[in-house]
Fold this sequence. Notes:
The chain has 202 residues and is mainly alpha-helical.
Amino acid sequence: MSEQPIEETEKCRAIARAALELIAEQGFHGTPISQIAKRAGVGVGSIYRYFADKDELIHAIHARLDEKLHHFIIEHIDPQLSQRERFIQLVKVLTRYLIENPLEFRFLEQYYNSPYGIEKMREKFLEEGEAVCPCGSDHGNPFKDLLASRGETIKDLPATVIHSLAFGPLIALARDVQNGLLELDDRLQQQFAECCWDAIKI
């Protein structure tokens, strides 16, 4: 299903925010349209004026978060750095974003582990041979140059393996920090990002 942008009206933003909060708390299946309407302070019919169904609403929220994360990454990654330093910066930026945006993180984790996101990942990995950033944008993705460097500076492994080595630990770390299992200071974050690089470099 294509991802329709969320209209910039106060009511539509309230619907999207309510859906994001409830889905992060209760999951996709545990969040009926009626509950979203109540949290947003609108009638059920108002939701259907903006979105054909709950699936379209979910995809629209994903598109909004995807675009937001994309811009955050672009703003905080220096293209003049070496490949190693760009990757380390990417890991640190993503970790920071996910930790500081827990509702978005929980929504995106659910999205990419559901049929909605699995299909999107499958298209990228199997049809295009590309990888997507976890919980984020695949357009303007600073991760793509790593795949182009496989066999040169990056291990010659399938895209899915590179993706898991680079971003799997990051997602687990962000989750542990949010759950209060770890305090992440700048020094530890730098060491962690360097370990992620060591996992994929030749």
